[in-house]
Amino acid sequence: MTVFQKIGKYVGIFLKYFSLVFFSFVAVLPVVSCVITAFKTDTEYQQTNVMVLPESWLNFDNFVQAFQKANMSKAFINSTIILICVLLISTFVGTQLAYVLNRFKFPGNGLIRNLFLFASLLPGVAMQVAVYEIMYNLGFINSLIGYIIMMCGTDVISIYIYIQFFENIPTSLDESGIVDGASYFTIFYKILLPLVKPAIVTSCILKGVGTYNEYYSANLYLQDKKLYPTVATSLYTFVGPLGSKYNLICAGVIISLLPALIVFITCQKQIYSGLTSGAVKG
Amino acid sequence: MAMIQAARPKRKRTFMEWARSRDGQKVFVMLAFMIVPLLLLFVFTYLPFAEMFGFSFYNMKYVGARKFVGLKNYMKVFQRDDCFGALKLSLYYMVGSVVQLVLALYLATVLSFKVKGGGIFKGFMFFPYLINGIAIGFIFKFFYTRGFVLDTVLQWCGFNLENLPYWLKDQSINNISLVGTSVWRYFGQNMVLFIGAIMSVDSELYEAAMLDGANKLQQFKYIILPSIKTIITLNVIMSITGSLSAFEPPYVITSGANGTGTYFVVMHEIAHTQQKVGLASAMAVVLLMIIFVVTILQKLFFKYVFKSAEDEDKNAAAKREKKLARLAARKAGK
Question: Distance of alpha carbon B324 from its chain centroid, rounded?
Fold first, then answer.
């Protein structure tokens, strides 16, 4: 190796790590600055620069206040109810649909797949103009049940994850079930469903994060913020008179993203693989 | 016995018998399993889709009388400055998404090879994707406020506060600031997708390339790029349609003030604040049309581009094999 090549190699390594560190810094800076501010008292917040570290990392007053002011206990209860119902329903609905689409040949199979695919192309915000009208006529505005039903709607990515998974399960399993005289329901619930568990975990994590973070529909359909706050919409409390108390707001923001952070740290692998498998097919 | 049975004409089965048979069960299961998802799909996607078309010809609110106005709403969409003109802003978002894709591709390539602490870097850069939109709104309002986070960091780098613009108020820069938040939120997710695609490349290809003495850049150009082109195409298409329908950053950070109102922010305002449902529906329909046309054009374009690229690939692969064969022959000769 010549000297130049050696220098080139080290410059390459330096650039590689420099860019990684730089962009990681860019990615975490906004969140970290929020964490710093969330631990500051009112006077500290007013008198020091935002990037100066707080005096005490044990000052949880802002978190307590934000939690109470934004009615977050109720919000967490609502979000949990919504999350559990949506995940349960959409798992059942999604796996069943994927089972039928993958295992049965019938006219219209391709059409149904395409209908779901096409639906994913429509930008959600554009559709809400008319969806709102339908929700209104169904009496689903300010109704937790109505909101849950709407959230269970089209979810192409998880359906495609399931279909892909079913493709890899040999049909000989079904056939042996049929020979033993099992009904299709039994075959699905007793034989196949346990085998798609990994796919269910993956798509539940993705769907769960999406549902937990959904604020546009929640804001539109659960308008009564006193009765039906979700974690995402409860942050709206800080729009208005509290709008400049950033130490409080930051605390609220941090509380709201803690669950996502915990899920992320514990289920990193599933999140990555779920995203990838969903995208390649979708 | 068998002869007699075969000769007897087939008896028609009663409905109950049919229902108990395999065929009957099959139909039964299919109906039971598909009715709910199809109903949901119909009620929350295709019914509103059809209704929206209908609404766009009326002058109406959500409640109350409706008046048929023909194509007037569509004319308004093109005449009002706040409607169609807002599409100009999507250019910012398009440029942003190009930056985002290139950045994601670069970082994904770097992270696909052995890197110390790769998982941590990946985690840091991906996490913004998991933060909810409204929290992002607050985080960046705070981030961009005069004298706050961004200004402080820039001052560390030697900038003077007086020379820095008001990131969210100054009309020459506020759209760029907003696009920045969108890039910040999604580049990690793009990167993870690309890493997944790169990882699925057969590692023997890299070894073959090393034997050929290909450097990193050549490896990227001839191995990585061709094998992940599907996912890149997909992302390019999604990011262009996504730019046309940009909504979240201005909606949560500036509420569309100071010239940051994108098409959908304006539409949302018209639909839900001014309650001009007909006009908003017309806006939605117009944009959907544009999105379809753009998608089809892109599909055709990429089909054409990649078709020629694939031919090239084949040639390259053939050359590579020849080279390998020659190398093996030489080794065997020694």
Answer: 40
Tell me: the pLDDT tens digits for A6-43?
888 888 889 889 999 999 999 999 999 999 999 999 88
State how far residue A74 is from chain B, nearest Cα, in angstroms.
18
Tokens standing for A133? 């009208």
CB contact under 8 A, A213 and B131: yes
Give the residue carrying structure tokens 């890299």: B206
- pLDDT band of residue B232 (cuts 50, 70, 90) is confident
* Size of chain B, expressed as the number of residues it contains: 334
Name the architecture of domain A74-239+258-281.
Orthogonal Bundle (1.10)
Structural domains for chain B? 74-305 (1.10.3720.10)
CA distance B315 to chain A (A): 26
Closest to B184 in 3D by CA, of A15, A21, A25, A20: A25
Task: Tell me the pairing of strands B58-59 and B67-68.
Answer: antiparallel
Closest alpha carbon within chain B to A181: B22
Q: Which residues of chain A make contact with B232, given a CB cutoff of 8 A? A: none
Residue of chain A whose alpha carbon sits nearest to that of B286: A126
Which residues from B are below 8 Å from A132, CB to CB? 62, 271-272
At A157-205, the pLDDT tens digits run: 788 888 888 988 898 988 888 888 888 888 999 989 999 998 898 888 8
How is chain A split into domains, by residue range?
3-59, 74-239+258-281
